[in-house]
Specification:
- Helix content is 31%, strand content 22%.
- It is α+β, with helices and mostly antiparallel strands and 144 residues long.
- It has one domain: Aminopeptidase.
- It has a five-stranded mixed β-sheet, with helices on both faces.
- 24% of the residues are buried.
Length: 144
């Protein structure tokens, strides 16, 4: 049986391991322990992990800008997929966002991650065709 709980910075190493071991998920400089601690502090109670028998097998990070929610890094180890874990993690986020009065959320999916795209579509999330996302990295880090 799985257990969902709020993510803490103490989970960082295990979450990074999940990220690095999961095809289609990018690990970036912005996923450092310092950046993750800042993110969790800025968005308290919105990111979650899943444990099975004391082992971290899934995670999701969530934040908001006051109007919209943003979900990132939904990861479930392959051996634990198709057991409702991803849905439970997502639902934990959108439930907490709703408590804050935030009813619309977004998720970014790498264009090459067809498995993730299929998951989100199967859950009723709609692929936007009316916007493009532009990014700027000012720090000089290529992997921000």
């Amino acid at each position: 049986m799985h257990s969902i709980r709020m993510m803490t910075i103490a989970d960082h190493d295990a979450v990074v391991r999940l990220m690095k071991e999961t095809p289609g998920v990018m690990f970036r400089d912005a996923d450092s322990q310092e950046s993750t601690a800042r993110y969790l502090q800025r968005n308290p109670g919105l990111s979650f992990v899943c444990e099975v028998d004391g082992q971290l097998v899934g995670c999701i990070m969530c934040g908001h800008d006051g109007r919209r929610g943003y979900l990132q890094h939904l990861i479930v180890l392959p051996a634990h997929r198709r057991k409702g874990i991803a849905n439970a993690l997502v639902e934990s986020c959108v439930d907490e966002l709703e408590k804050l009065g935030i009813f619309k959320s977004h998720v970014d999916v790498m264009k090459t991650n067809t498995l993730a795209a299929a998951y989100w579509e199967s859950q009723g999330w709609k692929l936007r065709s009316d916007i493009d996302r532009f990014s700027l990295v000012r720090s000089g880090a290529a992997n921000a």
